Amino acid sequence: MTQVDLQKYQQFVTALASKQTLNLILLEDQLKLLQFQETPNINISALIAASFGLSSETGEFNEIVKKALFQGKPINDENHFHLKRELGDVIWYWVLACYALRLDPNEVIAENVKKLEARYPGGVFDVHYSDNRKEGDL
């Protein structure tokens, strides 16, 4: 097995990182640019909180599922309730993201349904359509 020189790898990583990643002043400038110039209708602070919260709460949900699948933990009443609570937290941050982006949550769901109906003709999952998406299908 090849040993990696971690100091060289760290230099490689930092050379590829954006200026904003490595410099707080530049990050602050980018935040101000996003908040006030390019995206005046977006609440950047709420968007950041929603982004971090979504990934954190999804991670907590995934941890319960991981333990059930790979560590033999039961999905008993207690863990089922815990999953339910974590989903509630995911929804909380999802709604915060909608607020931050000035989106109506109902419209977000409607757009998702529209996208999936176009992707899967007949309303049935098909691996072919999942693997071979039309141009613009994100």
Could you estimate the helical fraction of the residues in percent?
over 70%
Write down the CATH class of one domain.
Mainly Alpha
Shape category:
extended
* Radius of gyration, in angstroms, nearest whole number: 21 Å
Layout of helices and strands:
Elements: H1 6-16, H2 19-22, H3 24-38, H4 44-70, H5 77-100, H6 105-119, H7 127-131
Characterize the structure shown.
- The protein is mainly α.
- The chain has a domain at 35-124: Helix Hairpins (Orthogonal Bundle), CATH 1.10.287.
- Helices cover 73% and strands 0% of the residues.
- The protein contains seven helices and no strands.
- It has helices at 6-16, 19-22, 24-38, 44-70, 77-100, 105-119, 127-131.
- α4 runs antiparallel to α5.
- The longest helix is centred in the middle third of the chain and has 27 residues, at 44-70.
- The protein is extended.
- The model has no long low-confidence stretch (mean pLDDT 93).
Give a brief rundown of this model.
With 138 residues, the chain is mostly helical. 73% of the residues lie in helices and 0% in strands. The longest helix has 27 residues, at 44-70.
